[in-house]
Amino acid sequence: MGRLDNKIAIITGGASGMGASMAQLFANEGATVIAADINEDNLAKISELENVEGMKLDVSSDENWAEVTKAIVEKYGRIDILINNAGISSHKLPEELTDADWALMHKINSFGPFLGIKHASKYMKEAGKGSIVNTSSYTALIGSGFNAYSASKGSLRALARAAAADLGKHNIRVNTVFPGVIETPMTAGLTQYKAAMDMLVAATPMGRLGQPQEVANAILFLASDEASYITGGELVIDGGYSAQ
Ligand SMILES: NC(=O)c1ccc[n+]([C@@H]2O[C@H](COP(=O)([O-])OP(=O)(O)OC[C@H]3O[C@@H](n4cnc5c(N)ncnc54)[C@H](O)[C@@H]3O)[C@@H](O)[C@H]2O)c1
Asked: Which of 24, 62, 99, 186 is 20 to 30 A from 11, alpha carbon to alpha carbon?
């Protein structure tokens, strides 16, 4: 028996990195997974997995969310789980950041999850249940030099708590995870800054970076019925980095 048997799960950013790892894990645990992403090449690859369907979605488009959630409910009957995981990052210095940089970061990392909650919760309310998990970041919790990225992930944290308070009466749970530096395509570019990466690893109590599967395992628990009384929860997955 799988831990997500008969669940219909949408994972945004589901075609790469942590999202792809979740897609595989959730499908192995019995879910039907809709990997929703903007990257069509990676969507084609992830759709090769059994019980994973890739769907094109730009999380920052209200219209696109309306179409995709409607299509999922028409095809599969309901939406049990939403993982708001798609995101972009930037470590531009404040003097380099433009209005457009700031707006784009917030549009994808904060407004995108808001739209996901808005559209998925409409169907979850009808079904009388649902589970939503958001991927924020340790940079929402501690000063880390990521400026617009940290601010967008902090906004997501506050949004998630507001949604948990609002949706609890509908039996819809909303939780958030805060990964540290995880080895995915998003952070692959950082490895060129070897000295900085070495310092980061040395400053992490567990002495290493995280793996996508380690985040996927935690999200699986929060998404599943095993976490049936957890809402508004916040789980840090960073090898102890932000505990210091
Ligand atoms: N890797 C890390 O160290 C780390 C740490 C903390 C938080 N996070 C967060 O985890 C999440 C997953 O990141 P990852 O490391 O797996 O990165 P990734 O780049 O491998 O995956 C992100 C995915 O989001 C998709 N995406 C980007 N914009 C989109 C849009 N507008 N609509 C739909 N999909 C879009 C990309 O196409 C990609 O498939 C992100 O929200 C990221 O901010 C990552």
From this structure: 99
